[in-house]
Amino acid sequence: METTTGELKQASKQVQGVKKMRVMVGIDESDDSFYALQWTLDNLFHRITAPVPETNAEAGFLITPLHVQQSFHRYGIPVGPGGSAFYIPSSIEESIKKDQEQVSKALLSRASQMCKDKKIKVETLILEGDPKEKICQATEQMHVDLLILGNRNLGKIKRAFLGSVSDYCMHHANCPVLIVKPSVEASE
Fold first, then answer.
1. Given this model, what pLDDT does residue 149 score?
2. What is the 3-state secondary structure (H, E, C) of 140-185?
3. Is 49 buried (19+), middle (13-18) or exposed (0-12) by CB count in 10 A?
4. Angle 23-50-138 (CA atoms, 0-180°, nearest 5)?
5. pLDDT for 67-97, tens place per residue?
6. SS3 57
7. 119 in helix, strand or coil?
8. What are the tens digits of pLDDT across the range 105-142?
9. CB-side neighbour CA atoms (13 Å) of 10
10. Alpha carbons 134 and 132: distance in angstroms, whole number
């Protein structure tokens, strides 16, 4: 089916009157977060924008891949009898923070390229702190319409000790949350 220039202009005018939909996708070092992003691009955006693929970039959709770096603490507390706290030299702290920034930039660069390949407008965001709390704060401050997170399928015991970012966000984010489980092939 061919689309004429007139049909594209008409579709573009219809889209201009629509509020821009902001979707945030949590990105970390896991393959599951990139699977969630790919699923979003393939299923959510592809299906919504299928009638006018040439206008995806202006179609009123904005995807925000978000990476939250863990806060760095300058002190360490050894475990065991007679242990005392120690402080990490500032040169090592700077080196660790620099490495964290490089990792974050690399992750978001990959995510950004995935979005650009699908012609979806993208804005990346890096925050520092507890991922659960920072993601929920970001969704509220940025007026996100939909939060999408990957699911690492932690067992009950690991989830109890480590906590689940997706579970926390599902209960505390003030927008709809979509949790994308890994594909059957990926989990085998």
1. 94
2. HHCCCCEEEEECCCCCHHHHHHHCCHHHHHHHHCCCCEEEECCCHH
3. buried
4. 0
5. 999 887 666 656 556 666 666 777 887 888 8
6. helix
7. coil
8. 999 999 999 999 988 899 999 999 999 999 999 999 99
9. 6
10. 6
Query: Measuring CA to CA, how many Å separate 151 from each of 94, 117, 143, 165?
Result: 32, 24, 23, 9
Single-letter amino acid code for the residue at 134: K
Structure tokens at 66: 């978000």
Across 8-32, b (16+ Cβ under 10 Å) vs e yields: eeebeeebeeeeebbbbbbbbeeeb
Structural contact between residues 86 and 126, judged by C-beta atoms closer than 8 angstroms: no
The answer to whether residues 138 and 147 touch, using CB atoms and an 8 Å cutoff, is: no
Tell me the two tokens of residue 31: 């393959």
- Of the candidates 151, 124, 18, 145, which has an alpha carbon nearest to the alpha carbon of residue 68? 124
Whether residue 8 is predicted with pLDDT greater than 50 in this model: the reply is no
Contact 45, 114 (CB under 8 A): no
Chain centroid, CA 181 distance in Å: 14
What pLDDT does residue 66 have? 96
Question: HSE-up of 13 (CA within 13 Å, CB side)?
Answer: 5
